[in-house]
Amino acid sequence: MKLTLKIWRQKSPADKGGFQTYQVEANEHMSFLEMLDVLNEELVRRKEEPVAFEHDCREGICGTCSMVIDGQPHGPQAATTACQLHMRHYREGETIVIEPFRARAFPVIKDLVVDRSAFDRIIQAGGYISVNTGQAPDGNSLPVEKDKASLAFEAAACIGCGACVAACPNASAMLFVSAKVSHLGLLPQGEVEADARALQMVRQMDAEGFGRCSNVTACEAECPKQISVENIARLNRAYYRAAIQSDKVV
Amino acid sequence: MKLNGKIPPGPLADKWTRYKAECAIVAPHNKRKLDIIVVGTGLAGASAAASLAELGYNVKAFTFHDSPRRAHSIAAQGGINAAKNYANDGDSVYRLFYDTIKGGDYRAREANVHRLAEVSVDIIDQCVAQGVPFAREYGGLLETRSFGGVQVSRTFYARGQTGQQLLIGAYQALSRQIHYGRVEMYNRHEMLDVVLIDGKARGIIARNLVTGKLERFGAHAVVLATGGYGNVFYLSTNAMNCNVTAAWRAVRKGALMANPCYTQIHPTCIPVSGDYQSKLTLMSESLRNDGRVWVPRLTEDVMAIREGRKKPTEIPEQDRDYYLERRYPAFGNLVPRDVASRAAKVACDEGHGVSRSGLAVYLDFASAIERYGRSKAHAMGLDQPDRETITRLGEAVVNEKYGNLFEMYEKITGDNPYKTPMMIFPAVHYTMGGLWVDYNLETNIPGLFALGEANFSDHGANRLGASALMQGLADGYFVLPYTIGTFLAGEIKSPSIDTSREEFRQAESEVQERIDRLLNIRGSQSVESFHRRLGLAMWDYCGMARHADGLAKARTIIRELREEFYRDVFVPGTAQEYNPELEKAQRVADFLELGELMVVDALQRKESCGGHFREEYQTPDGEALRNDQDFTYVAAWEWTNTDIEPVLHKEDLVFENVELKTRSYA
């Protein structure tokens, strides 16, 4: 199939950037990123600079790929990362617009590549359970209710890709932060630090320049791992409880 | 060079305990004065960096990814082994040790493997305490399942995302140390050389992938946890950016590469669909708990399926060949990976392959869905459930166990595996070979350590399922924090390393020269095209089956390809910018050398063992024929200069506890 691609090209963070149009010949069995590989091979053949885009596992689990396809982070297919999107969903002659994730807290490095290290700093602020290697009791010493364990797992399925931020009109990181606060807070091992964790992670989120949550829920709709906005409600409860009841100062 | 494995004395089961009691340790006030570089932030690297920092060392951690959480450990699906015996099914440290030695076809060190089995139980405890959401029973306790090559249920898991959950646990532990300032984290930095001073590893040269600048980092010791080299085959289940460069740069500086020909071909991957394909996708081994592997027995059915005239569900039971269950009744579908892969190859070579290319077999869940459905219906008090109810209930159980894998399969192939069997074929997955290390996980270069898939240490010639996660975390959490002390205890008087020294300047300028050389060729072919051609030669001649003639041919092909690469490759852009093509070019350049060494290693090993199958050495039934008399050794290769022949150093493997037998799963 012949396709027209309009791709955001930006040489460097300082460059203004703009769309460029390309033609590419794809087939229906390819993945979306393999279609971009074909374009890049062609560009290299013409001694032009290939389109920079990030990708790694191409199995939908590493969270590296980060592009907006026709206005949607990771493209049109629900619960699917860009790398797991396949060309059988496209038709001959279509035009596809490809841009980087856009948010003040995710500055563009080049073309479709953005800097998401703000997420790392939010985790560093408190997204963990404080246990040193060797301190752990027997794994079965603390039973965890199966349903709670399942909820924790579903929150822990977040791949840290940032699609939630890219989807949100406020570029809020609430879904990402709430997934971690829920994952750890739902488990008895993580309860101990629940107050401090919620306060510290939210503070860091604000410091990174992410916007506020206004319950648009586009994050949930675009999340490739279907992380639920119920986690945001859980984060709000944890945050208010910590802010009002706890004597933690952060 | 005489290789000393430094295996501690004493009975097997006491070695590690005694070692820990007697090994040199560094006092807390001295730990604060010692710097350690950890390259790679997968399970081994992140767990090591976090644990070393907790002990008080100053750690600098490096990853070429945008975040330490992206390391390829994240993609591991099925589970992690531990000798907890929670299932009360007769498991023990010794049984895990024995299964691993046998699974590795008696080509691993007894002492290392026993230590791995011992610390396996601590790993589970540690991960649970970190908040890893393992699967649980209704009573709230941890659940396990079975993996290939074993007859107990010792694999802990978090649905089909175990690697992700374990890595996030290690990443969080690492993040905590970054928060406290005990680890300096360098994202988007790729190690391009190791720096030696007076024969010791004292630092690295890394390229800042955003600015392109070469940067120098010094430390008292350097730890490589940089993964395996499966991408030498181009198509593999590895992530696109996995590469051998860090390890290979160490080899070029004198570190030995052990058993490079031992590669694992995983039996259950989604088959290749076309020549544009960039990578292959694994379907977890856990699926063989419930999936049954088969091909049609009759040629007319095979043809009808290939031409689309028949569906697999239309083939009656008696016309199916469940070849693993037939050939290996004791282990059935759960034979080890090397055995399952070769059996699939045999089925396809004999003309029973089911895809258009003839290179696929079925993995069928119909009987599992029925079995689970009946059990569930019974539990719900349904007396005579109809077929539809059974299927619905059974599918729900299967979804709970393997849901994400089934979804992934459907996204890639467009087929619904609940309704029609999966099509699978073997693909390159893991490399058992790696940097040679002694019991301390130290390479032959003092102060240079290698962990996880990057070393050769624990899996012999074939790794068992769910053991990679176990080894990565064992090395990082529980082994290196002790063993690195034996080296660092001698360094407490060494001042911090000065990176303005001549050795750093020299290493940096060598890296700069390599980069300039690649950029200045300005030829006509892409890096990718060379990588594809290398991969094809490796797969054809050094893949699932190897033969002296093919290997000799492959060596010629690779050398010619390398020559052509340096004459005609085109690398766009400059060195002073974000340039993924330049990164790839350097990695492929190193693969073009490693590939040759793998072929040389495969040629010298005139036996079949584990993942290394030489067609000349097989039993009349087509099973691997080992030669313990002549090949019970680790082949450690020295190759500092590609203009001279690689030099083989042998470390004899001594088995004091396990009797070497022909591996049988029948």
Distance between the termini of chain B: 41 Å
Rg of Cα set of chain B: 25 Å
CATH class of the domain at 266-428 in chain B: Alpha Beta
Secondary structure category of chain A: alpha+beta
CATH topology type of the largest domain in chain A:
Fumarate Reductase Iron-sulfur Protein, Chain B, domain 2
Give a short account of the largest sheet of chain B: 5 strands, parallel
What's the number of helices of chain B?
18
CATH architecture of the largest domain in chain A: Orthogonal Bundle
Q: How are the strands of the largest sheet of chain B arranged?
A: 6-2-1-10-18
Q: Radius of gyration of chain A from the CA trace?
A: 20 Å
Shape of chain A: elongated
**End-to-end gap of chain A:** 56 Å
Instruction: Name the helicity range of chain A.
Output: 25-40%
CATH superfamily placement of the largest domain in chain A: Alpha-helical ferredoxin
Q: What are its keywords?
A:
heterodimer, A: 250 residues, alpha+beta, Ubiquitin-like (UB roll), Fumarate Reductase Iron-sulfur Protein, Chain B, domain 2, five-stranded mixed beta sheet, 7 strands, 36% helix, B: 666 residues, Flavocytochrome C3, Chain A, domain 1, Methane Monooxygenase Hydroxylase, Chain G, domain 1, five-stranded parallel beta sheet, five-stranded antiparallel beta sheet, 39% helix, 15% strand, globular
Quick summary of this structure?
Chain A has 250 residues and is α+β, with helices and mostly antiparallel strands. Chain A has helices at residues 32-45, 117-124, 146-156, 163-167, 174-185, 188-191, 194-207, 218-222, 230-245; strands spanning 2-9, 18-25, 67-69, 72-73, 95-100, 108-110, 113-114. Chain A has 2 domains: 2-110, Beta-grasp domain (Ubiquitin-like (UB roll), Roll); 117-245, Alpha-helical ferredoxin (Fumarate Reductase Iron-sulfur Protein, Chain B, domain 2, Orthogonal Bundle).
Notes on the structure:
- The complex is a heterodimer of chains A (250) and B (666).
- Chain A has helices spanning 32-45, 117-124, 146-156, 163-167, 174-185, 188-191, 194-207, 218-222, 230-245; strands spanning 2-9, 18-25, 67-69, 72-73, 95-100, 108-110, 113-114.
- Chain A is of the alpha+beta class.
- Chain A folds into two domains: 2-110, Beta-grasp domain (Ubiquitin-like (UB roll)); 117-245, Alpha-helical ferredoxin (Fumarate Reductase Iron-sulfur Protein, Chain B, domain 2, Orthogonal Bundle), CATH 1.10.1060.10.
- In chain A, the strands form two sheets. Chain A has a five-stranded mixed beta sheet with strand order 2-1-5-3-4. In chain A, strands 6-7 form a two-stranded antiparallel ribbon.
- In chain A, helix 2 (117-124) packs antiparallel against helix 7.
- Chain A is elongated and about 60 Å long.
- Chain B is globular and about 80 Å long.
- Chain B is an alpha+beta fold.
- Among the domains of chain B are: 266-428, Flavocytochrome C3, Chain A, domain 1 (Alpha-Beta Complex); 501-652, Up-down Bundle (Methane Monooxygenase Hydroxylase, Chain G, domain 1), CATH 1.20.58.
- In chain B, a hairpin with a 5-residue loop joins strand 8 and strand 9 (214-218).
